[in-house]
Amino acid sequence: MKREFLVTTLAQDRVGLLSRVAMVFSRRGINIESLKVAESAMKGIAAISMVVLTDARTIKQIVKQLEKQVEVLQAFSAEQPDISKQIENHIQYAS
Fold first, then answer.
1. What architecture (CATH level 2) is domain 3-94?
2. What Å distances lie between residue 21 and 84, 85, 95, CA to CA?
3. How far apart are CA 27 and CA 12, in angstroms?
4. Residue 82 pLDDT level (bands cut at 50, 70, 90)
5. Rounded distance between C-alpha atoms, residue 49 and residue 10, angstroms
6. With CB atoms counted within 10 Å of each terminal CB, which end of the chain scores lower, N or C?
7. Cα 80 versus chain centre, distance
C-alpha cells in the first residue's frame, strides 16, 4: 500500500547532485510530489527534501541507495503523520 514519505538528503553541494538524486526515484518509477532544495546551516552542504508516494520497503531501499552516492552525507525518511514535524526540524536545521 502506498503511503506518503518525506525523504531528506544532506549532501555536498555539487553540480548534478539534484539530477543524480532524482534519478534514484525515476529508475523506480516514483514521482516526486514535492521538492525543496536549500543550503543547510553548514556552508557547502545542501539539504534536499522530497515528498513521495510509495511503500515502506521501497523507501528503505531508496534511502540506502541515496546514501551510496559519493556526495551524500546522510539520507533519511519519515512517514506521515510525522512529516510536518520533520519539515519543521529540517527548516530549523537549514536556517
1. 2-Layer Sandwich (3.30)
2. 22, 23, 22
3. 22
4. low
5. 9
6. N
7. 15
CA-to-CA dists, residue 23 to 18, 31, 66, angstroms:
8, 11, 10
Pair 25, 79: CB distance under 8 Å: no
User: pLDDT, tens digit, for every residue of 29-54?
Assistant: 999 999 999 988 889 999 999 999 99
Helix axes 17-27, 56-67, angle to 10 degrees: 150
Q: Which three cell numbers, joined as nine digits, stand for 18? A: 539534484
Query: CA–CA separation, 93 vs 95, rounded Å?
Result: 6
pLDDT value of residue 33: 93
